[in-house]
Amino acid sequence: DIYTNYFSAEQAGNNYLHPRKDFVGTSLFAGETQDYRFQTWWQVASGVGESGHSLIKYKGINQPSETEGTEYFYATFMSLIRLSEVYYIAAECEPVLVDRYGWLNRMRTRRGLPELAVVSDSDFMKHLRSEYLREFIGEGQIFFMYKRLYLSFDRNENGYNAMTYGAREDRYVLSLPSGEVDNR
What we know:
- By secondary structure, this protein is mainly alpha-helical.
- It is built from 10 helices and 2 strands, in the order H-H-H-E-E-H-H-H-H-H-H-H.
- The protein folds into 2 domains: 2-55, no CATH class; 83-172, no CATH class.
- The chain has a two-stranded antiparallel ribbon.
- Helix 6 (97-110) packs parallel to helix 7.
- The longest helix is centred in the C-terminal third of the chain and has 16 residues, at 121-136.
- The two termini are 37 Å apart.
């Protein structure tokens, strides 16, 4: 129901949540449409007057009958940490630049993408951020990457509008819930 009410281009109406029309193809995947995540988690928006792409990562999955086995368990299972996240952490923590690219390239090749050439620390971080965005979109995990690294939200990484939002404490430190503050 949540997917249908907010993310379905056909049924959400005024509630439709989607990235700006050119974001997915030109910024998020930057023409790398052979990426398995692009092919399975995104579809061209097909609602009336809509353009761009819709995220179908959380689209409902029909539960099979009990006689078909336990495959449905894996469709609804949410892990605490994924192997891709472990690789990204290893890449970020690796002190040797060549090895950092090595960790990142292991995940890229598993996603159907070519390996990246070793260029520089800043190039590596740009690609790592891109991989985080592609891998964890819609999960809330990207917020923690930006907060941990205290990064500006670059316009090329912003699916809402083409603006850059600078790193500020008020964007990364959330206020206490009023229920907790009022009961002190």
